[in-house]
Design goal:
By secondary structure, this protein is α/β, with parallel strands linked by helices. It is 50% helix and 13% strand.
């Protein structure tokens, strides 16, 4: 069971949802485990909603309303709490990212958001949303850069990224943007904030992945995987499938260059972008 913690119910729609769920559960005389059992989830999962660790889920909120006899009260609060600065398909993964003990990411074509510079993120956003206003573009860029606060946390996540060599070679935004981006990655590696490997073209056939994958583990919860493609993504929590992704990621990591050789390649390509 997740122990209660002091939350301001009015700090956000998510904390208000959590406070209301706890109030209604206790009024019904149910423990977190008992409510979870009736809603086909764990008591810990219920506790994560009550403490605003996890975003409310529409299907689970519907079950809570049915069990607690609260009409559509929690479903309406769920809709408010799910409003987010991230796309809906990524919002829950973004929250889990902040709680992860380890993040292991494979990037086949683009620099991952946690490592992007503003220039790279802005160029990528313009390319993805060519009709978006400048204000909207800047909102997306700021949301992406804001995620990077976890790199400087007192107890940061252990972040390990494998970049396909394609990521280094595609001149997103031109030579100056790419040079800045690659040197930024180099600085993160040299300051021991992240670990980065490069999967070279010569070894790419040995890597059994062809899409973006982020494997997240947690200190007090089962691991999860987030996969993404253009304009959509999916959070995977099914244990057997998560295990398969973990094994596939390990094979990608084995096929990649060692960390020192990877850093040397990243810095070498950055220098190439400065050569006329």
């Amino acid at each position: 069971m997740t122990e209660p913690r002091q939350l301001d119910p009015y700090a956000s729609p998510k904390t208000f949802y959590g406070a209301e769920l706890r109030r209604l559960r206790e009024a019904a005389g149910l423990t977190q485990s008992q409510l979870g059992e009736r809603a086909f989830c764990s008591g810990t999962y219920v506790g994560q909603f009550e403490t605003a660790v996890r975003r409310p889920q529409p299907d689970t909120s519907r079950l809570f309303d049915e069990i607690l006899g609260t009409g559509e009260h929690l479903q309406r609060l769920c809709r408010l709490a799910r409003e987010n600065k991230y796309p809906d398909y990524f919002a829950e993964a973004a929250e889990l990212e902040q709680m992860a003990a380890t993040i292991s990411e494979y990037a086949p074509t683009l620099v991952p958001g946690l490592l992007q510079t503003e220039g790279y993120a802005r160029t990528l956003t313009h390319a993805t949303l060519p009709l978006a206003s400048e204000q909207r573009v800047e909102e997306i860029v700021r949301a992406r850069i804001d995620r990077q606060f976890i790199l400087g946390e007192p107890t940061p996540s252990e972040i390990w990224v494998v970049l396909h060599e394609t990521v280094l070679r595609v001149p997103m935004g031109g030579p100056s943007v790419m040079c800045e981006q690659l040197l930024h990655i180099s600085e993160l590696v040299r300051s021991h904030q992240v670990m980065v490997q490069v999967l070279p073209f010569a070894s790419a056939a040995e890597a059994p992945m062809n899409g973006m994958v982020s494997v997240m583990t947690f200190r007090d919860a089962p691991p999860a995987v987030y996969v993404e493609s253009a304009h959509t993504g999916c959070l995977i929590e099914e244990p057997s499938l998560v295990t398969r992704y973990q094994k596939s990621y390990d094979l990608v990591r084995v096929a990649a260059l060692p960390t020192k050789a990877s850093l040397a390649l990243i810095e070498s390509v950055a220098e190439e972008y400065t050569t006329p």
